Amino acid sequence: MAERLVDVLNDNNTVLHTFPVTLGVAEAKLSDTKFEEKALSAAAHSQLVPTEELESLSARMHISRSGAMTPYGDSHDVLMETKTDLDRIVRQRAYELWEQEGRPEGRSDEYWHRAHEQRLRERAYRIWEQEGCPEGQADRHYSWTCGFEEV
Length: 151
Prior knowledge:
By secondary structure, the protein is of the alpha+beta class.
């Protein structure tokens, strides 16, 4: 897996948001274009701008001038996680679940899958909240979040 931060910009070249994007290694070797396309897709889903302005958005690879690269501006930290962050959080949560249930032997996969499912649901919920809590759309947000993580 290859991870990059990608800035999404409006037509004034102002950074609206920086998305953490993860691609398979084979895809990542092609060019930065795949990372940029995925960031623009995330921007459309996040509704950074009205639908009629989506075509005016552009993307570029994030450039950090110093220190660790961090996403720009979003206070919804669950949405800024990179694949590495997600894996770390899932591992930690799986361990906590395992401990809470008495450390049963031979069930590590079960705990990892439960923890992963919980974290994806948290991410989907935050996106649903950002869209104004539209009634009847929770399943769509969860499906989109799962699909975005698999790419």
